[in-house]
């Protein structure tokens, strides 16, 4: 394995101005004109001639009451993998992480996972029932829920199966497919605690079971302690109503815990004194170990990160010089404290720059700027959360749990960068 | 004017649990079943019968590669006012603030203001030039810009003319129209400082003039100090590419300053030693005073707030009991320190609850929960920012500046709530 490391630590400690100068000086003369923008090219028609968009007015403000992306961004979409499941109504599509930046996922690009397709629920007819071990069983209309105090929180939502196919080696070539079962939006909702208090939870209660109104009638068992701690009954994402595929008009938000528990089209919450052992917490969403036993109730999404650019779907276009490496890190335990990156498959690590709001149980954005000399690279990132957990290698995960697992793979991902800028999903030991 | 004030201060100091109990106890018996959700209604078909969405599977994950809102939300759109301008290509549409919550505006609902319609710019052909008082004039492709360090920041963008028609009294009935020229997203971009450093700013430079690539070729003068402080050359909003109507593929972000300066379709930045006195900073975007002189260079958007619910487009549906009042506050000076609200037109003020991230030069969300007895209300909010500025009354603004102004109205807004829950835009003195 070739080692490429161009003074990353020195760059990280230098001032920005120094870095920019170093970047220019470091580039070959031939490359300098594209590294930082060319000097004025007198004959370039893109500079000297008037473009059509400068010559003719465009559409007016009445053209798109609800706006949509540019025609030049038509490839920035969620993608599914048809062979992955037998039917698209019980399948997944993936967030195009390699096309995004920052920490907010636009609503139209949030990955979906359904068990019976997208339910189309009329909010006027929707009801939320709370029953079981409560003093007063209650039924809420959407209008009823609007009368309770609300909270706004940015949370990531990750499917427990995200990166699941990586357990047994590299299979899918692109972070959209290896890590795209995660998104992050600002939710608005009523703390579930207030609704449970309204019904009056009996002292014998220990668990809740939320249930969806779709044709799969999804159910999961959640400890009452978590329900009272930070769960939201949410009706808005990024300011507007939930999207149909995200549970419109109502979903449960279970911060930091696996996405399957965030029941969509939420219609009922039963309060009980023991877990219900439903299908989705016995035959599914448990982790089969090498000895044939299964881990259960593995709810928290562990500390994890991935480099989104460069990555297989986003090769390096410039063959030399300044390169911006960026990615995402997150943890169900809270905030991300630090992200390290390596260009040489783990021989040398440097600390990445975290940028933007650092919010508990939210995505975090990291960057690392370096000069590339065109040699092959083995890119990895490793996140550390505020609880001190360090993202493990895939080998460490397999040593602990065997390789039967599908869920909860938070192992370090490797991208191999060829000298031509083409990138592949690989594993190194 | 009738005075209605139901112990708001006491409610604000009580614990949440006490508040919920008080809310129930305070409601008439007849209202209790709708205040907090009804007791289980055995015969209600919405509870006892299986709905179609529970019976039949929905669309699969391949149905909408880029998602869209629910069919039940078709009225949640930007709206323009056809009589406001002579042509829709030089006009405004408004964010539906009364339909939103939290602080993030979804990209499809961000208000637009154009001077020559929506330019459709090919990013492959787009260039950004830096010229004027620089050591080396430079031209950047979009790919060049991707090689500079990026930042992610949540900022509000407000048109200087927002609430402009309120200077001479109430005219438009709804916060979408009185206050809807504001939105708030997370931008990703390159600090302008890095690009200017790359070109090398001459010591005589004091101003920059960004220029747009659309048919209006919008230009404004901006002090170099601001350009170096926090301006971004942005290419993403809420994670994805800028929308066409927001300047795709590149716009200038000028945090806290009036929206007209946030040049869209950014193609050139000239560096100079004095302002250029362009059309949009002389005949427009100046503030005509009573004595016939005009204030100029009034860039900062002053501390401001508005109650978004209840409001004329969002009347109170329940006629009694628990009501959630909510709204937005923002300031070009930084964060919001406090928001006060009154139910009786200013006789009694209580402190609202700020919720969600408090980010500099970003929208802030506030709430105030109270019990309504059905009497008429005069709702107002008053924001105070971290610099200590207090939102003024409209009369105070007029006393200082006369009533010729269009721009920079940050006066306190009043909504009159009738006993039937219908709400109107009014002024009280």
UniProtKB/TrEMBL annotation, chains A, B:
CDD domains xref list: bact_SoxC_Moco
- Ranges for domain Oxidoreductase molybdopterin-binding come to 115-276
Q: What is this protein called?
A: Sulfite dehydrogenase
GO MF: heme binding; molybdenum ion binding; molybdopterin cofactor binding; sulfite dehydrogenase activity; sulfite oxidase activity
Cofactor(s) the protein requires to work: Mo-molybdopterin
Q: Which UniProt keywords apply?
A: Metal-binding, Molybdenum, Oxidoreductase
- Show the taxonomic lineage: Bacteria, Pseudomonadati, Pseudomonadota, Alphaproteobacteria, Hyphomicrobiales
Give every Moybdenum cofactor oxidoreductase dimerisation domain span: 297-413
Q: Which gene encodes it?
A: soxC
Q: Which Pfam families match?
A: Mo-co_dimer, Oxidored_molyb
Q: Does the keyword Ribonucleoprotein apply?
A: no
């Amino acid at each position: 394995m070739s080692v490429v490391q161009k003074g990353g630590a020195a760059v990280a400690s230098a001032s920005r101005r120094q870095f920019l100068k170093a970047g220019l000086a470091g580039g070959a003369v031939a490359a300098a004109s594209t590294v930082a923008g060319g000097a004025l090219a007198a004959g370039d028609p893109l500079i000297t001639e008037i473009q059509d968009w400068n010559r003719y007015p465009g559409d007016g403000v009445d053209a798109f009451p609800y706006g949509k992306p540019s025609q030049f961004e038509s490839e920035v979409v969620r993608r599914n993998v048809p062979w992955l499941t037998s039917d698209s109504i019980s399948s997944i599509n993936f967030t195009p992480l390699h096309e995004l930046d920052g920490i907010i996922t636009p609503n139209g690009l949030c990955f979906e996972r359904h068990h019976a397709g997208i339910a189309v629920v009329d909010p006027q007819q929707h009801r939320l029932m709370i029953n079981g071990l409560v003093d007063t069983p209650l039924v809420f209309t959407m209008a009823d829920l609007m009368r309770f105090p609300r909270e706004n929180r940015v949370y990531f939502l990750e499917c427990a199966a995200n990166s699941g196919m990586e357990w047994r080696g590299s299979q899918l070539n692109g972070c959209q497919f290896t890590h795209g079962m995660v998104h992050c939006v600002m939710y608005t909702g009523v703390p579930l605690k207030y609704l449970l208090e309204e019904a009056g939870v009996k002292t014998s209660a220990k668990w809740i079971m939320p249930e969806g109104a779709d044709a799969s009638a999804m159910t999961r068992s959640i400890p009452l302690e978590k329900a009272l701690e930070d769960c939201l009954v949410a009706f808005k994402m990024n300011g507007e109503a939930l999207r149909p595929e995200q549970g419109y008009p109502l979903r449960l938000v279970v911060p930091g815990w696996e996405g399957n528990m965030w029941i969509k089209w939420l219609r009922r919450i039963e309060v009980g004194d023991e877990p219900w052992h439903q299908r989705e917490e016995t035959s599914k969403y448990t982790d089969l170990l090498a000895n044939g036993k299964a881990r259960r109730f593995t709810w928290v999404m562990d500390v994890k990160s991935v480099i989104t650019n460069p990555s297989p779907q986003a090769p390096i276009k410039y063959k030399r010089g300044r390169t911006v490496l960026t990615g995402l890190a997150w943890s169900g335990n809270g905030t991300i404290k630090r992200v390290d990156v390596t260009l040489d498959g783990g021989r040398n690590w440097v600390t990445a720059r975290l940028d933007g709001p650092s919010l508990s149980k939210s995505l975090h954005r990291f960057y690392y700027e370096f000069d590339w000399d065109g040699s092959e690279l083995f890119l990895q990132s490793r996140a550390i959360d505020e609880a001190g957990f360090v993202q493990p290698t895939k080998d460490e995960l397999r040593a602990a749990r065997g390789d039967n697992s599908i869920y909860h793979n938070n192992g370090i991902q490797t991208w191999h960068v060829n000298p031509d800028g083409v990138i592949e999903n690989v594993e190194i030991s």
